[in-house]
C-alpha cells in the first residue's frame, strides 16, 4: 500500500492507495511549527480511523509547495512507517513534457495534477486547482504542459476583505440562495463565490480562444466543490486528482 501526501500552504492532503484504488483521502492543517512527531501522530490518527496499520504501508511519496515542511514530513513518515518517501522534484521521473520558460519553477502540485490529467482525461485540457491560490494549468493536444495562470484564492480574498473592513463578518462558503444578496452574509457569499465562478468561466473561454480548441476542464482542490456548481462551463470535479498523480509518479520510479 502507498501513502501519498501533498503539502499545500493551507492544507495537507494525504491518502492511502492500494492497487490504484484510493482507500481514503483526508486533509489536515498545514502548521510549519509542528514537529515530525506531531505530524507522525496526525498520520497515525488518520490511518487508525480507516483501520490501516503502519506495517501495511510499503512506500510513500510527497509533493510539497512548502519547502520548509518537506523534510519535517519526510521524517514523520520515516518515524511512523519506517520507509523513506520519494519527493516529487528533480531526479524523479514524471513523464510530463513541460515547455514553460523555466520548467524547474513549476510547482510540484501542478506537475502532479497534470500527470494525473493526461493519464485520465482527453487533451487539450485545463486543470483548475483551488487552494490557497487558484491555479489554471493548460495542457495541449500533444500532452505538453504549456503554462497557465495563478489567481488569488477565494479564501484568501475573503480573509483580506474581512481583515480590512470593520463590519464584515466571517462566513462559510455555501451556495448562495440568490445572486442578489439581501443581507450582509449573503452578499459576501454571492459576491465572492459567483465572481470566482464567473472568473473561471471567462478564463476558460479566453484559454480556448488562444488555443483555438475546446478543452476538457478538470477542477480539484479544497474549494472546487463549492464553486464548480456555480460555473456555466462544463467542468469535471475530481477531488482525488493529486492522489492519482502521486500514485502514477511513484509507479514510474520503482
Write up this protein:
- By secondary structure, the protein is α/β, with parallel strands linked by helices.
- The chain has two domains: 2-87, ATPase, nucleotide binding domain (Nucleotidyltransferase, domain 5), CATH 3.30.420.40; 97-245, 2-Layer Sandwich (Nucleotidyltransferase, domain 5), CATH 3.30.420.
- Helices cover 38% and strands 24% of the residues.
- The protein is built from seven helices and eleven strands.
- The strands form two sheets. The protein has a six-stranded mixed β-sheet. Strands 3-2-1-4-5 form a five-stranded mixed β-sheet, sandwiched between helices.
- A hairpin with a 3-residue loop joins strand 1 (2-7) and strand 2 (11-18).
- Helix 1 (36-49) crosses helix 2 and helix 3 crosses helix 7 (241-252).
- The radius of gyration is 19 Å and the shape is globular.
- The two termini are 13 Å apart.
- The model has no long low-confidence stretch (mean pLDDT 95).
Give the secondary structure arrangement, pairings included.
Elements: E1 2-7, E2 11-18, E3 21-29, H1 36-49, E4 59-64, H2 67-81, E5 86-87, E6 97-98, H3 108-120, E7 125-130, E8 133-139, E9 144-152, H4 154-163, H5 184-211, E10 216-220, H6 224-227, E11 236-237, H7 241-252
Parallel strand pairs: 1-4, 4-5, 6-9, 7-10, 10-11
Antiparallel strand pairs: 1-2, 2-3, 7-8, 8-9
